[in-house]
């Protein structure tokens, strides 16, 4: 099958129960993280430091104003460990232009700026070094042996001092003699007037006569005491005084944000010839290694102790040298999973991303790279595993008319496949379409500017607009434009900072953008197969496993072709209609409407509103200690950043939503459910009035997240209208003193599930009033079910929390509650009990929707402590009457039983006596097959009076489910149910018609290389065959394929076909951890279609052109086992279908024709009319 490494990898959906093992019993070993998360493919990053001589200088930018200046303070010998420039600097004479101009931050961007607060350098562990001692400020923090300067005392020192009143002239003051000065001296420009005139400045000086009570106010309004100002100046002197020192500060601080899994190498542009991992280099100090422990420490040591000689700036040679490094194909090279080692594999190199950041404070010189005019020369044709081809064609803004430039180097290592022996599976994104092994570069300038606007240059890429690049050999500004061209050609980035503070922040942004590129394309960021279609929008949920944050986005759908836009890299992409994470980040925490339950009633989420038990539990940290921080934990849950608790902004962005994995968002439409046709017991006559009244309310998107709550968003703009925190999260964990919220907010955080079940919404009659109610669950995050009145979602309060239900026989993993009118004349919530309940058996619960009281609890009797069991999500149907009343409920369990519960009697006590195991799912060896999905039902189109119950087997939430050493055969079933006439089990697979996968091949299909399958066309041979089955095997061999989501139907007027997906775990580090198939079969007998149902050749038609080897294709590789999202083609035939990431896979035919389909807004149960 084709690999599926995309911008967002897809998680399994709805009822997959990828949950956390929260039960102390652990009878069913529920995994604590999604099973599909493979080890991430860590990126390569080379950082090249400019160690040219100008980095010693204590002024910035370059210019004729500083033609005589090198330093601002006398330097000790060997300050940077190499050859120094002369000890030449302006004297402190107050009337000297060189003094007041050069010692003002308005002109000299590296000199002390009182508007800034200067921090010490960062240590490798992210902490800061000690503040400088004003009485002994070091000349170089990494070279303390060079001595220090007492900034509190007047100094007399020997240097080449000069003065003057014009930039082009200077006089000794004295040359090679003593000069006396106060070290803490700087000049604030007054904001008006000629910068060359002394009267335009105010001198600030701290001497022994300066009173301790004196205050200093900067031009920007920062006020400090004398000692504070002295300390700030001392920190600047010791850590930021020169281009090199302030670069070290900015780089060191920025790299604290880089995660330890990134593989980092350090280099310099003037590195002497050396060998790195067995290959000669003139740039690299070391090869890429994981940025943790000793490697991180070595990086900081190498950086801070960098030797700087008064050498030139051979940027092109350094860039070419790094590019050569990434062309290495030996086992010790950068694509290997153990770089530098003889052992290891380069399998992950197929999708490994590689980056190069090169910073400079000057203009390049030195030898040519001899690669020609690369950006004006077409590249080779490169093909991906999905049969996509790409060739670079010279076009604006990339091409120019010059050879051997930095831009040419960037293009040379971008447009070519640097490892032709590896599969081309590098993730693409909106900024970079390259799927082959290539190098993305970033150019960073410090105190240098060019003529081309970077924003204009990068904005020209989509339109192929030419940029008037100048010859970089001609002028210095053109050389800086060439640094921009370097980043542009490789689809990387560029910035040039005019001051050290901007440099540090911008470098941090570059590292963040690299992290985001990797996050949004690796398994650390996945889309929760939680895609929902409503009118012209797709809602797609996602999460990041690096910090377990998540979001949901509204994506516009092109109605003509079903396409959704490609998204830009990073948070808050502009192509979406809205992004919940971004909307939440802009919402004050105090203004959020958050609700919970105190055990007796609903309440607004406030520490003072909680009961005593909840308050005590929250006062305990996750280690059991009572730290009294309960109110802090509540405020953290509201979205506040709380010191000592889990950070919500480590990434640099505020992330307030938790991961969205097992639960699927649900759209709450304002349309009618048709209840005006209910019988008179349910006041159907008043329903149309209610439907009309809700037309003006905002439509909702309900989103469960493992950040501890069910969110209710305005579906049109993403505004959060409310959030609900189950009271169970505030109660003590069984056997402990702390609450689950204590674990959720703990730093460091270990993932746990909290609200992971799919909610259900429906209009219901409570008393004499119609209301809209949502029933939510905690999924594998807990053992509670709750209900909220969302009739007026903009006015939610404590009274809209209807109830929270728990029971000893209710376990983990409850999801997809059915809300349905019942024969006893009430609306009920019907659900299975999940797993790890107290008695380890399967139970069906029926709860009154009005108040949460228990109507019925039906024990299946299946399950023991040694063979623990539980009931999966339930499907309730109004068959055979089609009167909207729930008559039969169907659900599977871990022991392979398909249960049918008869709820058709108005006497509740009859329900349990009419329960049967309708069918036993067993594999060819007779072993039970687990049923974890919600069944689907529909009338048998070829046999009136029969119901087809459709479901697949398999599990992918238990720890052992990922072990495919000896996988069990799993199966998809279509079971015929004749209703009341069936009073006992119809048997097992021996009583069914068998279909099988008869052909499998890899072809180019739907625009990618995919595996396609043919399914047999067997017919029923006897009336006694009670349905059909299809084993998910090829040639009789089980490959670990299973069904973990419910089936679906085409958007047609009659249901004659069934669609379902399968999942197979994939350990390939370049895949999403899973691969899947999409099946389309006759729902009556499971046979292949009579016509083509997949538009294999993507020509817009379903005909013989879609045959493969003259075979009708019934299954095609795609997705990850998630439930299909299907949108009717409004301008042609068939359906568009999408994977869980909202990515359109292709077109599917509907042989029986098109129809209006179901109303938007999923019904909570299955009504058959």
UniProtKB/TrEMBL annotation:
PilY1 beta-propeller domain span: 658-1006
> Where found?
Fimbrium
Annotated family: Belongs to the PilY1 family.
Residues of the region (Disordered) are 1144-1169
What's a Pfam family in this record? T4P_PilY1
Signal sequence segment: 1-26
Recorded GO CC terms: pilus
High-level lineage: Bacteria, Pseudomonadati, Pseudomonadota, Gammaproteobacteria, Cellvibrionales
In terms of SUPFAM superfamilies, this protein maps to: Quinoprotein alcohol dehydrogenase-like
Q: Which residues form a coiled coil?
A: none
This protein is called: Tfp pilus assembly protein, tip-associated adhesin PilY1
Sorted alphabetically, the keyword list is: Calcium, Fimbrium, Fimbrium biogenesis, Metal-binding, Signal
Kindly give the InterPro entries that the UniProt entry links to this protein: B-propeller_PilY1, Quinoprotein_ADH-like_sf
Q: Name one GO molecular function term.
A: metal ion binding
């Amino acid at each position: 099958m084709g690999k599926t490494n995309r911008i967002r990898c897809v998680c399994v959906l709805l009822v997959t129960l990828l949950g956390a093992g929260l039960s102390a019993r652990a009878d069913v070993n529920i995994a604590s993280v999604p099973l599909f998360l493979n080890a991430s493919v860590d990126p390569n990053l080379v950082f090249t430091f400019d160690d040219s001589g100008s980095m010693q200088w204590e002024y910035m930018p370059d210019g004729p104003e500083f033609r005589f200046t090198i330093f601002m303070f006398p330097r000790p010998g060997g300050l940077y460990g190499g050859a120094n420039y002369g000890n030449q600097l302006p004297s402190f004479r107050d009337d000297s232009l060189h003094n007041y101009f050069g010692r003002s931050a308005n002109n000299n961007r590296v000199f002390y700026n009182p508007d800034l607060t200067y921090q010490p350098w960062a240590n490798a562990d992210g902490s800061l070094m000690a503040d400088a001692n004003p009485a002994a400020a070091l000349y170089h923090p990494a070279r303390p042996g060079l001595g220090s300067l007492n900034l509190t005392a007047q100094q007399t020192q020997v240097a080449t001092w000069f003065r003057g009143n014009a930039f082009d002239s200077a006089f000794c003051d004295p040359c090679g003699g003593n000069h006396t000065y106060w070290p803490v001296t700087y000049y604030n420009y007054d904001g008006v007037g000629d910068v060359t005139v002394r009267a335009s400045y105010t001198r600030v000086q701290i001497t022994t006569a300066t009173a301790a009570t004196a205050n200093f106010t900067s031009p920007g309004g920062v006020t400090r005491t004398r000692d504070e100002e002295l300390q700030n100046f001392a920190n600047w002197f010791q850590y930021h005084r020169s281009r090199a020192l302030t670069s070290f500060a900015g780089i060191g601080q920025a790299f604290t944000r880089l995660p330890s899994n990134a593989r980092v190498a350090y280099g310099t542009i003037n590195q002497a010839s050396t060998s790195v991992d067995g290959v000669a280099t003139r740039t690299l100090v070391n090869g890429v290694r994981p940025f943790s422990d000793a490697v991180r420490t070595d990086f900081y040591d190498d950086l801070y102790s960098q030797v700087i000689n008064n050498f030139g700036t051979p940027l092109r040679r350094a860039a070419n040298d790094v590019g050569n490094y990434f062309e290495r194909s030996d086992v010790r090279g950068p694509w290997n999973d153990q770089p530098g080692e003889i052992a290891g594999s380069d399998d992950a190199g197929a999708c490994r991303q590689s980056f190069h950041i090169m910073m400079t404070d000057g203009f390049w010189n030195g030898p040519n790279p001899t690669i020609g005019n690369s950006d004006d020369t077409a590249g080779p044709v490169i093909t991906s595993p999905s049969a996509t081809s790409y060739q670079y064609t010279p076009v604006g803004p990339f091409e120019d008319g010059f050879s051997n430039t930095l831009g040419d180097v960037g293009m040379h290592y971008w447009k070519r496949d640097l490892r032709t022996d590896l599969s081309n599976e590098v993730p693409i994104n909106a900024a970079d379409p390259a799927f082959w092994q290539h190098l993305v570069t970033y150019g960073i300038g410090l105190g240098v500017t060019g003529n081309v606007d970077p924003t204009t240059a990068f904005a020209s890429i989509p339109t192929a607009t030419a940029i008037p690049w100048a010859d970089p050999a001609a002028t210095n500004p053109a050389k800086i434009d060439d640094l921009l061209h370097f980043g542009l050609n490789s689809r990387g980035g560029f910035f040039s900072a005019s001051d050290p503070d901007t440099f540090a922040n911008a470098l941090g942004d570059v590292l963040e953008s690299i992290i985001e590129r990797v996050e949004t394309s690796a398994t650390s960021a996945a889309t929760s197969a939680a895609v929902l279609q409503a009118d012209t929008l797709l809602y797609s949920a996602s999460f990041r496993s690096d910090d377990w944050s998540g979001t949901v986005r509204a994506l516009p759908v092109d109605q003509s072709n079903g396409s959704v836009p490609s998204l830009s890299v990073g948070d808050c992409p502009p192509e979406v209609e809205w992004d919940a994470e971004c909307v939440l980040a802009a919402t004050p925490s105090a203004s959020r409407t958050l609700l919970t339950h105190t055990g007796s009633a609903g309440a607004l989420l406030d520490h003072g509103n909680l009961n005593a038990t909840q308050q005590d539990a929250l006062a305990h940290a996750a280690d059991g200690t009572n730290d009294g921080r309960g109110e802090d934990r509540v405020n953290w849950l509201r979205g506040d950043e709380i010191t000592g608790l889990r950070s919500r902004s480590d990434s640099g962005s505020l992330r307030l939503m938790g991961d969205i994995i097992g639960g699927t968002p649900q759209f709450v439409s304002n349309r009618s459910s048709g209840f005006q046709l209910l019988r008179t017991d349910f006041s159907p006559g008043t329903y149309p009035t209610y439907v009309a009244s809700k037309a003006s309310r905002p439509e909702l998107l309900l989103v469960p997240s493992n950040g501890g709550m069910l969110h209710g968003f305005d579906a049109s703009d993403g505004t959060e209208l409310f959030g609900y925190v189950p009271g169970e999260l505030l109660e003590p964990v069984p056997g402990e003193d702390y609450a689950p919220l204590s674990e959720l907010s703990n730093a460091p955080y270990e993932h746990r599930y909290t609200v992971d079940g799919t909610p259900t919404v429906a209009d219901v009659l409570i008393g004499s009033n119609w209301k809209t109610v949502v029933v939510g669950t905690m999924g594998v995050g807990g053992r509670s079910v709750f209900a909220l009145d969302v009739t007026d979602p903009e006015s939610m309060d404590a009274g809209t929390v209807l109830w929270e239900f728990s029971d000893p026989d209710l376990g983990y993993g409850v999801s997809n509650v059915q809300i349905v009118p019942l024969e006893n004349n009430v609306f009920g919530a019907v659900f299975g009990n999940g797993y790890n309940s107290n008695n380890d058996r399967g139970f069906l619960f029926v709860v009154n929707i009005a108040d949460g009281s228990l109507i019925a609890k039906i024990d299946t009797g299946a399950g023991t402590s040694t063979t623990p069991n539980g009931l999966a999500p339930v499907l309730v149907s109004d068959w055979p009457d089609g009167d909207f009343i729930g008559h039969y409920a169907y659900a599977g369990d871990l022991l392979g039983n398909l249960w049918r519960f008869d709820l058709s009697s108005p006497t509740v006590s009859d329900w349990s006596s009419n329960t049967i195991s309708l069918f036993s799912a067993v594999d060819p060896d007779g072993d039970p097959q687990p049923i974890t999905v919600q069944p689907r039902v529909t009338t048998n189109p070829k046999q009136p009076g029969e119901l087809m119950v459709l479901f697949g087997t398999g599990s992918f939430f238990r720890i052992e489910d990922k072990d495919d050493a000896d996988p069990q055969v799993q199966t998809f079933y279509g079971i015929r149910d004749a209703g009341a006439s069936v009073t006992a089990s119809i048997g097992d697979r021996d009583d069914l018609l068998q279909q099988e996968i008869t052909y499998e091949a890899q072809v180019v299909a739907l625009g990618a290389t995919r595996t396609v399958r043919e399914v047999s066309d067997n017919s029923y041979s006897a009336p006694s065959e009670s349905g059909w089955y299809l084993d998910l095997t090829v040639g009789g061999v089980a490959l670990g394929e299973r069904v973990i989501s419910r089936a679906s139907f085409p958007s047609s007027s009659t249901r004659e076909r069934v669609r379902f997906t399968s999942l197979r775990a994939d350990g390939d580090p370049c895949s999403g951890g899973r691969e899947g198939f999409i099946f389309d079969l006759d729902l009556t007998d499971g046979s292949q279609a009579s016509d083509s149902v997949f538009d294999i050749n993507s020509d817009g038609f379903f005909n013989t052109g879609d045959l493969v080897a003259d075979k009708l294709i019934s299954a095609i590789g795609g997705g990850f086992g998630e439930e299909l999202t299907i949108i009717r083609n409004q301008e042609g035939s068939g359906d568009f279908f999408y994977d869980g990431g909202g990515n359109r896979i292709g077109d599917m035919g509907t042989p029986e024709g098109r129809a209006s389909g179901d109303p938007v807004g999923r019904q909570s149960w299955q009504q058959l009319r």
